[in-house]
Description:
The structure holds three protein chains of three kinds.
Chain A: H1 23-48, H2 59-62, H3 65-90, H4 94-124, H5 133-164, H6 173-199, H7 206-219
Helix pairs in contact in A: 1-5, 1-6, 3-4, 3-6, 4-5, 5-6
Chain B: H1 3-6, H2 20-25, H3 42-75, H4 94-121, E1 133-140, E2 143-148, E3 153-156, E4 158-162, E5 166-173, E6 178-182, E7 186-191, E8 197-202, E9 207-212, E10 225-231, H5 233-242, H6 253-265, H7 286-295, E11 317-318, E12 323-324, H8 327-335, H9 337-340, H10 346-349, H11 351-355, H12 360-371, H13 393-403, H14 431-439, H15 458-461, H16 464-475
Parallel strand pairs in B: 1-5, 4-10
Antiparallel strand pairs in B: 1-2, 2-3, 5-8, 6-7, 9-10, 11-12
Chain C: H1 19-23, H2 28-57, H3 67-102, H4 110-129, H5 157-185, H6 198-229, H7 243-277, H8 284-297, H9 313-341, H10 350-371, H11 375-381, H12 385-415, H13 421-447, H14 464-493, H15 532-537, H16 539-544, H17 556-559, H18 574-587, E1 594-595, E2 602-603, H19 605-623
Antiparallel strand pairs in C: 1-2
Amino acid sequence: xAQVAVAHDPHGHVxxxxxxxxxxxxxxxxxxxxDCLFFGSFIATYLxxxxxxxxxxxxxxxxxxxVTSISTFVLLMSSLAMVLALNYTQRNRAGLARFWLLxxxxxxxxxxxxxxxxxxxxxxxxxxxHRNLFGTTFFILTGFHGLHVFxxxxxxxxxxxxxxxxxxxxxxxxxxxxxxxxxxxxxxxxIVIFTVIYLIGFSDGEGLETVGHAASAIGG
Amino acid sequence: MNPRRFLPQARPRxxxxxxxxxVILAACNKGDAQSTFGTNGPIADTQADLFIFIFWIAAVxxxxxxxxxxxxxxxxxxxxxxxxxxxxxIHGNNKLEVIWTIVPVIILAAIAVPTIITIYDQDxxxxxxGPVLDVTVRAHQWWWEVEYPGEDVVTANEIHIxxxxxxxxxxxxxxxxxxxxxxxxxxxxxIIPGDVRELAMRADDAGFYFGQCAEFCGEAHAKxxxxxxxxEPEEFQxxxxxxxxxxxxxxxxxxxxxxxLYAQNCSSCHSNNTWQGPNARNERTRLAGLxxxxxxxxxxxxxxxAPNLTHFGTxxxxxxxxxELNQANLEKWIADPDDVxxxxxxxxxxTPYRNRSxxxxxxxxxxxxxxxxxxxAADAVIDTDDGATGGSAVERGAAVFxxxxxxxxxxxxxxxxxxxxxxxLSSRGDDAYIRESITAPNAVIVEGxxxxxxxxxxxxxxxxxxxxxxxxxxxxx
Amino acid sequence: xxTIAFPTLISRPTSYTGLWSWIGTVxxxxxxxxxxxxxxxxxxxxxxxxxxxxxxxAQADNDxxxxxxxxxxxxxxxxxxxxxxxxxxxxxxxxWMVPLMIGARDxxxxxxxxxxxxxxLFGSIFLNLSFFLGGAPDAGWFxxxxxxxxxxxxxxxxxxxxxxxxxxxxxxxAASFNFVVTxxxxxxPGMSLMKMPVFIWMALVTSVLMALAMPVIAVALVQxxxxxxxxxxxxxxxxxxxxxxxxxxxxxxGHPEVYILILPAMxxxxxxxxxxSRKPLFGYPAVVFAGAVIGFMGWFVWxxxxxxxxxxxxxNSAFAISTMLIAVPTGVKIFNWVGTIYGxxxxxxxxxxxxxGFIAMFIIGGLSGVTHASPPTDAQQQDTYYIVxxxxxxxxxxxxLGLFAGGYYWWPKMTGKRLGETLGKWHFWVMLIGxxxxxxxxxxxxxxxxxxxxxxxxxxxxxxxxxxxxxxGAMLIAIGVLIFIINVIRTIRSxxxxxxxxxxxxxxxxxxxxxxxxxxxxxxPQVKSLDDFWYQKHxxxxxxxxxxHADSTEHAAEEAHTGGSIHLPGMSYYxxxxxxxxxxxxxxxxxxxxxxxxxxxxxxxxxxxxxxxxMFGIMGWTFEPVSExxxx
Lengths: 220, 477, 632
């Protein structure tokens, strides 16, 4: 085998693909399709268990919509920053690109900060993953999303590092574009989660009826 | 591919027929107790008929397609004199594609129509075929509790139903998923903890039908069986009445000795006095106990209910439809339940097994007692005197203590069994405290003891004078 | 592109032989071999489990094993055969054949490919370690809640199961992403989608199904693991949790999974039949379309696993109809296969026999499937041995026979030697007969009322004869496997070398040497038609037949852009390291803690080690160039 001239490709660059989309970008698209099913399953679980808790605290007792609306706005703005960061990278405007890239990461961190505060408040109000179905489904769904944001922030910081090292330029801007795909996806998913948990999740008293139902099912 | 062309040519490639052979060998016996054929009720009849209908369609398709396959293999295998030329290079035929897409659709539609009609027909008992008997079944790992709502009758593992009347089973689970299945009467329905399922069926012939849990439910799943006894309506009514009459006087000395042993060793989990009314039983479910613990956010306690043994001697099987009920089998069961049904909870949990306190004689006497648990005849004089009326309050209280199985969990000394030892009880609280501990045991739980273990029903099952006697006795310890 | 200077963490493996060359390999062929060997070893493990099960059930009231052990055995038999045998064996063929059949030099992401294998290996080892660490999982391969909750399954077995399958899920996801990208992006010039071999089509459909179905089970498994370890309430009825949700999630994954298991075998058979019939596949577009339709409709039939759950007549009717409909494209495939051999000149070599056996057995499994697509009849058959018989006809008679067909077919290409034909035919007939003796009687057992998953049965039920026959058949299957092993050993020892194209093949892998060189294709092929290699050998056929082939491929090779040099990715240890770190990190979730002195807190040391190793691996992976600059 070694006799054949096996030269190594210095860039690991694959020539033209059948689809015209690079392998790595296509990989990201396939991953996102798969991730849809991850989030879809968690969101479906949350919806199936909505108003099924047998004991409080219930969503209407703990959720703070105004505060979470602010953090949602922060995350939405991070997507705007992402667009700008990519735009300036492609146009080789390094300073602006770096500024916006760091802004994305910073806004992501702010969002995570909001989440940490929210979780801490809930635990103080006796809502834990163990306490009831709402706690279980809420913490795991939003926590799973938070994990995505956290990994995204790490990735963006890595990108920023590469940018400062001069490794991320208009020629390799696809690296940033792929990270951007991920970031926008995580952002869009949050819109769905925000809607499902905070906007349509409210209904006073239904949870209490469920207690009676469950009790009769178990006792009867 | 004309079928007539290949039939005479098809030489037996027996391998393809092998699946059929053992079936024939096994001598399809409709009489086998758990067979889904030779059914005895309209639900199972229809299900079997529908299966046979689909089976014959499938059989025809099987013969045609396998036939075409085998024919092609034999007809087009390469011969020894092959000249090496290529066969005709056919790429496909659109007309054929359409045909073999449409034809299966038509066949499947022929199956789908009766299927869907049957699904809706079998959704609940028919409203125009007389009154429906309600039976509540609660599945436990690994036995069945049976209750006749409104009839004050509770039993286990043998379900009596009347012939010719629709029965609606309301199915509960006390722990995990189970599935209620009596093949001769109806297909199965799963039982979901925390939810309720209903399954209607009717037996058209008297008989002792085999049932079995059909959803994997843990270690002893294989032995979670039961029986349905379909009686003629008048027999069924007689049985129902008999379950509300007191038991006959014990005859043998073994049985009389066994009664005391039962009270000391068995009665804290098993009830055998439901003939007095539904309140007489220890109505505890594991799920309810766990739920109390969950909602109270406290450590869960394990409360295991046990099969009701009222008029046990009238049953025909033992261990959830496992073996015939007789003295030898019952002794075997009591001596070592795991030997008969590995995994069952009795040996792990019951005090006499933990302490190994049952002698061979005890086992024999217990078995004799249980086998003599039969209702008195319908015309017999009912003697409600249970022997606890004479003597002093302390003596009467001691009888109450024994009869209600208090000794199963409480020693009269200082030893802790499940509950605290009761020696020197009078120094721990006044009459009111003791009374509360008997009637509402969860009101005050002494540190270190689990809640929701002691039945909270003594306040209703025991008459007030017996509670007074019991308190007098307890204070004397 | 400027690369970031970063210290080389671990020097890249350089040798092409020895243990380290296997650990560091990113060659799709070597990874395929690793998958195949591992899957076959697990096939033996799962087979031994099955033999013990059959031994226990050979007679009534038997006590060869306790119910506790029996439950572990059937749980691990199912889990092993599905996740550790059929899926990785399919992955072995994907790895070997996808690049070769589409004319590529490797998969799109060679290091990700290696990561898939190592995750699979570590996950499977982790799962099987449970046998030695307090007992294997015993709640069934379907793991129905709430029996799997810590109240009812207090040991560690089910946690091993949930976490082990999660790791395997990561492996499957990574592999599926890789193959989707490879097939969509890396086909040889001219190979449009409808010129791809059917096997590649089935690999694509399977990979898409995996990419979309594995997340569903992964979520369910995470929920289960959290319920057990962190006391969450997903499937806890006390908190209002619904055990039926598990069933929905499991089967929403589980039914596409059935097609993940069977479609690769269908793809293999679709390759083998035309070659041995010396005729093109009958109705190629129909077969491809049927496969894609099966993959799509497979998402809408899951509740037929739950006909007896009591979902109501409307749900049962809807799922009955969708289930019956999915029989249509399945039937289309079978009819087209029969059409392929009809009028051919059949060489009944071992691979062909296995393919024909596949069709014959799959027909039986498919038809018995139709009988319980009807909920009223399924009410009697669900959870009985009738179902056991049905899915073994589909998954053993189908998937396993199909994979053996692929093994005999591609063995010369993969190893340069042909498996013995005489022993091969013995292997086929013994296995086929044994298979039917084992699983045929189970149809009757189920109809005769024998439930699944029972550790023993009483003698008064009329089940003894059929069970004894089934157990005897299982021995015959074991003998069949033994013959195969002997055949493999004899083949490895023989010195007779296979030709490059021993079967007069149709697809691109037969155009290169056996075994293929590390770079696969010295010249990237130019594809003009379906079965391009066949028409290169038989150019006259192009003129006889469809006009579209009229422009001959004779000069294709000259037109190819040879590009001067061949670019190959360098070897790497990092996939191995990342997979190891991930497995340790997940394993630490099994409450492997150490007390932190003075605080009362607990430190999950094993997870911490795993995360450190994993992070180290990811860093190294990120900064390691795909290949060394300048070469050697």
